[in-house]
Amino acid sequence: MKALAKAAGFFFRFVCMILTIAVFAGTCLVPSKSRAKEDLTADFIDYAYNSILNKEADGERFGFWYWNLKDGNTTAVGMIDMLTQSYEFSQKEYTHEQEIDVLSQMMTGKPADENTRQKYLYYLDSGISLRRYLSDTAETPEFQAICAQYQVTPGSITDLDSRDKNPELTNLVTVLFEQMYGRAPVKEEYNLWCTYFADGKELAPTLVDIVKSPEFTGRALSDEATIDALSSVMLGRTCDPAEKENYLGLLDSGLSMTYVASQIASDSNYISNCSAIGVAPGTVTVTEARDMNPELTSFLTRLYTQFLGNRPSAEELNSYVQSTLEDSGKTRDAIVDMLSDPDNMALFATDDEYLNAVFEVCYGQSPAPEKIEAYKISLRNGVTRERVLESILKDPAFDAKMSEYGIDTHVEKNVPEKVVALTFDDGPYTDVTMRILDALEPYDAHATFFVVGNRVNNYKECIVRAVNQGCQIGDHTWNHTTLTRISGDAVSTQINDCADAVYNLTGIRPVVMRPVGGSYNSTVSANVGMPMIIWSIDTNDWKYKDSDHVINEVLNNVRDGDIVLMHDLYETTATAVETIVPALIDAGFTLVTIDELAEYKNVQMENGKAYFSIRG
Q1: What is the mean pLDDT of residues 254-278?
Q2: Per the residue annotation, which of 425, 426, 562, 568 is the catalytic one?
Q3: Same domain, 451 and 599
Q4: Most buried residue, 31, 53, 504, 532, by CB count within 10 Å?
Q5: Is the CA virtual torsion 486, 487, 490, 494 positive or negative?
């Protein structure tokens, strides 16, 4: 056993001696500077070290590179690649421009031309690594020639990171991080995101997710800054002023930033920009109720902001839009209630402010000057906001506009079984007209007053009150002239002068007239410019001045669709009306204006035509 142990110890010492000799011999085989003067591989190592690191390789590193280059374990560009990733190279703190100049001189034997320099400066500033420059330059004839001069294998770089393969895509990731996160990505993020997009992930939906992410929302960017960020990433530029104004307007209308992103994504420049980069554009799918009907959302935002004094939240808007679409039939009533609520009206100090708010809500714009002027006249002279609002909402243009929002506000009136139009001529006259209005008011009953133009300014309060109660003002000439006795031009003057007087007081121009004494001929018909309203029941109240006579004439003869003639000049007429109104109501009649009578009977009245009754 002792002999065997002794032999094993001898063998171990022998092996160690042989390995020591081999290592020493191998080291000695690496040429020294004096011995390597004619060794081109050694010269290349010196050339690379001096060019890139401004130093000579120490013995150990020199040996490493020498044998790896000789044995083909590495290539010239592989060596340069490792040198540029070394600690010594990083300590040089070269600028990107200096890096390109140093490597160009070393790999091509000359400085980079300006186009090449700018190209790779753009790459490096975009987040692409220096390896892309090495990879591209290694393929140049100049580098191949230098390698041939030193008899080393040029080689190539085949393991580029994702960020180095598509410069435009890498630049997109840089812009995305800078704009959306406010910082530059690190190497790992570059490679991750470049791979993400290279694998076909779509840009637009990704950006929408980012906008909703805590990292983005935590930056608390303004809407304007967010739009600029999205545009910079998606279009490669910031929005021009007109685009930005449009997008900010969409947000102000209550739409979401997701909707704005969908609009940017629909820009043809977005598609072409993505194509140039090689990234899938994708589309933005809106899912919130407020984004699915922009016009309706804009309308509801205006409505609630103007008339409740505060802007609805996103959650409230989604709820309002959904409930409106589910039951649009109730929306008109809700609009009327909100716009006519006294507390809401109190938000507007002046009538002008109120009118502008109503038109802004209903139409999304200021009213036409001629329309608002009429309403201003009404309000200035005592017509209530409620009555003006009713007039605005009766305009067919309102229903048409609401239909654009997806709201059906057309109201089918319940047609009463029996209707009658009480009409009064030759007034107004305060003592009588006011009593007649007193009799109508408790029943919300309406009548038509055919006024004489030269009396309008003397009895303003009567006419304004009649309008506020929903009564109609008709035209009864300027000074009670029998129209069949004058020329056509004079007929027009009589009618227009009266109409102007009524308009200047109420902001409402009469649309029906009554010829004095009911007298008309072809000249009158051709020049009045309105339907001529005659009568089917003449009470002769002016002749008898007897309340009982007037009451009996009406109640004993009235039929559905009748037009009753009276005059608001006589106290006896007012007394009769105080009995007639409740009696007609009790008998099942609805008391209406001439326009309402025609509407209920579905009759389209014609200018210059005489109507004695309207029975449909």
Answers
A1: 94
A2: 425
A3: yes
A4: 532
A5: positive
